[in-house]
């Protein structure tokens, strides 16, 4: 698994270079290792190489891994589309949820978060591409959703998340990330997290202010399942 260690180092080097190019300190950008579809051994190898935070998109798959890796104190982020009937499992087993895009989902996560646990860290997912098929709240509806989430005592609203439409054009990548930052700056609620940037576009995201990049294939290799 030395290849995994060197892949992880290469991603850290990309983050550091992009941060420096943007006049930012490299430690202002957190790396979330997206381990969906990869096995427990790969996650253990990444953890042994120093990676602490992991992102998962499928609830059933994630619960198996979280249980099997309970001996390591990892931090688990749920980044996939969230259905109502999965909110309890997610609220109980994850540390973060990046994909809150409706008030009903936020309310259910809040109600299911166990009192002994610290509040669940959440990001509101925003549709920055304007494509109707994409998940995320529209920019127009964002302020109302942010205010609703901020009221919920068992949630800790941390920031905004986006999955832009894939684009080979650097300008289009930048424009979508910039929109998320501008939306964050326009809210009257303090938010410390901008979750944006993946294997193919993390440089653009970091240039536009990402504080957390979600990176899968650049660490673990190609996925069998396309998503
Ligand atoms: C799969 C996934 C990623 C990681 O994508 P890569 O291109 O493999 O880096 C990031 N964010 C979300 C929401 C994902 O579903």
UniProtKB/TrEMBL annotation:
GO MF, one example: pyridoxal phosphate binding
Keywords: Pyridoxal phosphate
Keyword Hydrolase set for record: no
Cofactor(s) the record lists: pyridoxal 5'-phosphate
Top-rank taxon, per record: Bacteria
Gene3D superfamilies recorded: Alanine racemase
Alanine racemase N-terminal domain ranges (all copies): 8-223
PROSITE patterns: UPF0001 (PS01211)
InterPro entries: Ala_racemase_N (IPR001608), PLP-binding_barrel (IPR029066), PyrdxlP_homeostasis (IPR011078)
Positions of post-translational N6-(pyridoxal phosphate)lysine modification: 36
Protein family (similarity comment): Belongs to the pyridoxal phosphate-binding protein YggS/PROSC family.
Record function comment: Pyridoxal 5'-phosphate (PLP)-binding protein, which is involved in PLP homeostasis.
Listed NCBIfam families: YggS family pyridoxal phosphate-dependent enzyme
Protein name listed in UniProt: Pyridoxal phosphate homeostasis protein
Organism: Sulfuriferula multivorans
């Amino acid at each position: 698994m030395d290849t995994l260690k060197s892949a992880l180092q290469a991603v850290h080097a990309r983050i550091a270079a992009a941060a420096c190019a943007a006049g930012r300190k490299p430690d202002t950008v957190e790396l979330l290792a997206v381990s969906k579809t990869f096995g427990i051994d790969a996650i253990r190898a990444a953890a042994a190489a120093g990676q602490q935070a992991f992102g998962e998109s499928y609830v059933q798959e994630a619960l198996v891994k979280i249980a099997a890796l309970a001996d390591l104190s990892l931090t688990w982020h749920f980044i996939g589309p969230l259905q109502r009937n999965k909110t309890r499992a997610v609220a109980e087993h994850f540390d973060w949820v990046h994909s809150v895009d409706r008030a009903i989902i936020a309310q259910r996560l809040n109600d299911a978060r166990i009192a002994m646990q610290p509040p669940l860290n959440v990001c509101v997912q925003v549709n920055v591409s304007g494509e109707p098929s994409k998940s995320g709240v529209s920019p127009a509806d964002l302020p109302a959703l942010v205010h609703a989430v901020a009221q919920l005592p068992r949630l800790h609203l941390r920031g905004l998340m986006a999955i832009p439409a894939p684009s080979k054009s650097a300008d289009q990548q930048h424009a979508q990330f910039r929109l998320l930052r501008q939306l964050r700056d326009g809210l009257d609620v303090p938010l410390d997290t901008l979750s944006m940037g993946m294997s193919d576009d993390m440089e653009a995201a970091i240039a536009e202010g990402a504080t957390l990049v979600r990176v899968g294939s650049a660490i673990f290799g190609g996925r069998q399942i396309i998503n």
